[in-house]
Fold these 2 entries.
Entry 1:
Amino acid sequence: MDVSTMFDYKRFALGRLAAIAPQYLPFADAASDEVPLSRLLRLSLFQITVGMALVLMVGTLNRVMIVELQVPATLVALMLALPLVFAPFRALIGFKSDTFRSALGLRRLPWIFKGTMYQFGGFAIMPFALLVLSGYGEAVDAPRWIGLTAAALSFLLVGAGMHIVQTVGLALATDLVPPEDQPKVVGLMYVMLLVGMILSALIYGALLSTYTPGRLIQVIQGTAVVTIFLNGLAMWKQEARNRSRALAPRSEIAFSTALRRLSARPGMLRLLAVIALGTAGFGMADVLLEPFGGQVLQMTVAQTTRLTVVLACGSLVGFALASRWLGRDGLQPMTVATLGAFVGVPAFLMVMASAVLLTVPLLIAATLIAGFGAGLFGHGTLTATMRAAPRDQIGLALGAWGAVQTTAAGAAIALGGVIRDVMLLAPDGAQGAAPYLPVFGLEVGLLLLALILALPLRRQDIDTGLRTTTSLPTGSPAGPDGLADTRP
Amino acid sequence: MSNDPDKVWPTGLTLREAEEVHSYLIDGTRVFGAIALLAHILVAVTTPWLG
């Protein structure tokens, strides 16, 4: 293995992280007198567990299953896409937690507790499910369906838990601060997600540098314990009991009505379409980047896991720049998002070039740029969504954003895996980089399509008309449509 | 001690509140029990013991 590149990598990642940290201090003004920054940071620990789960599944396990456990890539991609079955329900989860009935007057905590339980349960059975699936030990003689259903169940549990924890956790964070600071808080949460991804990718890379089945069990179950611990710490005493909410009459808005009201906003559906296309474009290579590095460029598990680190570092830079441009320089969110998609196109062209030239540094640079574009795009579109949402529907809007984003990413991941495997089966497409190239080409196409759709949005300026909504007096008891404020 | 007839000794929760807390405990026990059972079955498939 090439030790010098590996070392540079880690130093680069850590140096980048250290340089960026002070940039995020502006988020501190999100902490009002009632909610100090320390409490917000503690709450954001749940994002670290979500990041851990994402890196473990999309990055590390993806490679371990394909290369070490020799599970077919289509099966792996479909398994990894399973959690995304729950993605469309994120909007429903956000809405349900908004209107949750509880004798204790809690709205968010019961959901975070349930989500954490599912996340833990999935991780607890996942290593054994994977070993049975790969026919390890006596499992060779076991019927195939046991491994398949158990692995599917574990991924479903982790995915469901992750979606619930993230959606409701973000909603809780949004509850805790005044409306004008909510976008900054969500920014803080996403930075914590990336920090969690970077840290856990480094740790998994180190722990799994020598792979054994026993080590796999330790790592995944260790993740389960850390998850329940961090989520417990994050939610401890965050949400106040609220007797008046417990006694208040049930609000009678149907989910479909709320959803229709949200999608009737001008430009909303187009924005969601841009989010879907752009996310699919950026996300399609996610599960293929590591096997691509391993099989085409002969990188080790530790090295390919670090590719995910580089991707996350790029996103972090994108987030930092995007929040500066959106906050201080007053750029429109859609301008930033368009720029992100624009940067993504050459990045994936570079990935294709690295397959032809067989140069690892080019792949690393391309990964960094792709991450940067994804960061700009993600921040821009999320901010645009939040600004486009009425104040009493921010939870639902967050859910819709997450639902569209994760569904698109999941569909793209599954499609990418299927395309690669179909190309592998083709008589003359089997060797080298050939199976991967069409996927990277498709990503370029999707990003171009997102750019075309986004450009009119930028002109049309969906958020100027809505800024009036966000700049309502904070003490106003009723939203723009006369509905009572749902904040405590 | 409380004058509120709904409150249950010794927690100071009302009956409905206490039942809700209890429901979370029951849910947790069920889910964790099912997970533990499943994990044991899967381990027994890969590396059987007692046999």
Note: Chain B has one helix and no strands.
Entry 2:
Amino acid sequence: MQTDDLENAGRTQEVLTARRAGLTGCRNCGRVHDCAAQVCARCGSRIASRDPHSLQRVWAWLAAGIIVYIPANIYPMLVTTTFGKTSQNSIVGGVIELFHHGAYVVALIVFVASVVIPIGKFLAIAYLAVSVRSAAVIRGHGRQKLYEVVEFIGRWSMIDVFVVAILSALVQLDFAATVNPGIAAASFALSVAFTMLSAHSFDPRLIWDAYEADDI
Amino acid sequence: MTSLTPPPQPRQAFDPETLIACPACDALHADMAVPAGARARCHRCGTLLLAPREGALAQIVTLAATALVLMMSAVFFPFLELSAGGKVQRSSLLDAVMAFSSGKLLPLTFAVAALIIVLPLVRFATLLYVLGPLALGARPARHAVRAFRIAEATRPWAMAEVFIVGVVVALIKISGLAKLSLGPAFWAFVTLVLVTVLKDNFMCRLTIWKTLEERRKS
């Protein structure tokens, strides 16, 4: 059974899915129902064999996430006042400053969390959403992994927002130095939340449907 | 590691009660008892379906209760202390939350409060409410199904561990500017994160849903 599965991995093969059997599986708890059921008997969540609006929601949240990511990079994230002098730091500016201070590891963490992960997520979600429609270069298992990574990693982008919150709370030494949050903190937080919702709207079952679409 | 098998082939009329559909790829499996300690994966996409463990419920309940207590102390004790030029500034977790409360960024205050305090609390409380009776072998509490749905929905949004990494980054950013010391709340919060990660590792969603359903019937 196992070896058989391995040989056929990724190839079009006869896999009996709930939809093919005329049933509906719950994405929350795995319970199987007749296709007429709308609410899961075990966990009470709404069920549908496939949600026809799943991709629409993915694209809508993704667009919103990308749009608010732009002001997050233009406007200041941190407004620092040291001895009467005010300086403003954007996301990338903060990374560069950390780098100049010699804190390379921290600079890297912030850069990955606030630039690499968000942009990587935009691309990954867009790719997943496009690839369920057309022939995919990456096999089902690869895209399943990609989806799991995107779902797992999204929340870690919030690091920079928390850094701003802690610095603003901590550094209020009237004369010597004060740190205040900039407007970019809000739009960056929104961007992270929107992309998380986008990834959450994606139905991973769509990845696998392509392998059995011909005879349904 | 075992792999659940597909249901027997000629497709007779299936009884949905005897099947499990993989939440990730929709492949059907025959629902059979998985021994404690074993892990059952989907035969097509490899997603972990069932991983029951001996005494998992009691462990999760204990960890959730610990997390609840730790969170309380993390909120009220001093979190970080900053001293520069003879001035000392003490901040609690609440101060960090209130950092955005001036002017245009007020909504962000609510968001941060939700992400690092409220949602983790909701998650611990609902888990206790749902799994407490189950761990004692009793019938599930009223509305346990809805409560566990809430616990599952808050999972990605409870960001205590992300906050801790944020604290570390912030500390390094200002380490040149002033002298810093960590308060008891900081250590409570670090412990909280460890406990949370441990708890989430013990949890097997599908097993808990199945147990809830069985206990409701009996």
Note: Chain B has seven helices and eight strands.
